[in-house]
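Today's session is about reading a structure prediction critically. Students often jump straight to the picture, but the first step is always the sequence itself: look for stretches that repeat, for charged clusters, for runs of hydrophobic residues. Only then move on to the predicted structure, which in these notes is written as discrete structure tokens rather than atom positions. Here is the chain we will use throughout the hour.
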Amino acid sequence: MPTRRSFLRSAAMAAPIFCSCCLLDAAKAATPAHYRRPVSINGKRVKAIDTHCHCLFQDAVDLMGADAPKVLPPTKGVPEHFIGDKGAVLAGRLRDMDAMGVDMQILSVNPYWYDKDRETAVKIVDLNNKHLAELTAEHPDRFGAFAALTMQFPDLAVQQLDDAVRNKGLHGAAIGASMLGESYADPKYDPVWAKAEALGATLFIHPRGVPEIGKRIAGNGWLSNLVAYPLETTICFQHFIFEGTLDKFPKLKILGAHGGGYIASYAPRADHACFVSPQNCNPNITLKKQPTEYLSQMYFDSLVFTPEALRHLVAQVGASQVVIGTDSPIPWEEHPVDRIFATKSLTDHEKIAILGANATRLLNLKA
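Below is the predicted structure for this chain, in token form.
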């Protein structure tokens, strides 16, 4: 029986023009490893940078012991996570990037070590950061990376972030949207934000779910991801605003996965909450701006699936705050560049910004 990939490869060889998502899938399957689909606007080459890409390293996962099987996401694309273990996996990743028109991926490891003891967590983080640094050094034109941090031990996280940026050439760190449900508003995390601000490093916020609502979202549809993931990011970002963290650290750069969750979808409601119910707001916290004004201090990936959703995200937060995100190698978005070009409300300048100029500035990349 033919596989989906062999079928698409045959279809691609037979198709004279690639002009739809289905045919682009076919083209992707047929693309040779050395081919890169260039992106250009008005004849000018544009570099496309994907800021939301995942990977795993087997030796670090093995340190989880009996919990190692829980690390693997129950999704398509699991084998492709182990990018550093097999040459074929790396070649496949590069081939898929080329077919999507993505020049560079910023890799991250979703945190799975937050409930581990200090010694084990340090070993896991050290291995992940070592491998990320090696991979990006070997392929500097194709990969960058966000470091792993032991956020359950903020004192260590500060040291790890400093080492990752200063010595390993990484662009910041990827952290969960909470510490096992605990808000980052706790002052014990302030040294991490201060270090990131001082380094000019970006913190990529990726959710891990909201276990407190597990029973309510049980059932069909994978709601633990569909609902809980964007919800946790939304809560995280609102805490950064309402607890005064962004006032305390005005140059802190945070990037939210999955379009930042729901925060941009209903942003103006935040401007009314403390006016309508002041008893539910802390009188000791006086924000320097309206809550919606802080959106211009945050960054959001483009993983919102449709041109209309991207148009709305840009309308709420500004084109200067949006970067490409795909969740690769999980196949949530396999045509990120096409999605941006299909958003007719965007000007050429805005398309260039979202495709790569914003990420270049955000991550301190060489232009």
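Discussion point for the tutorial: Residues 36-362 form a domain with the TIM Barrel fold (CATH 3.20.20.140).
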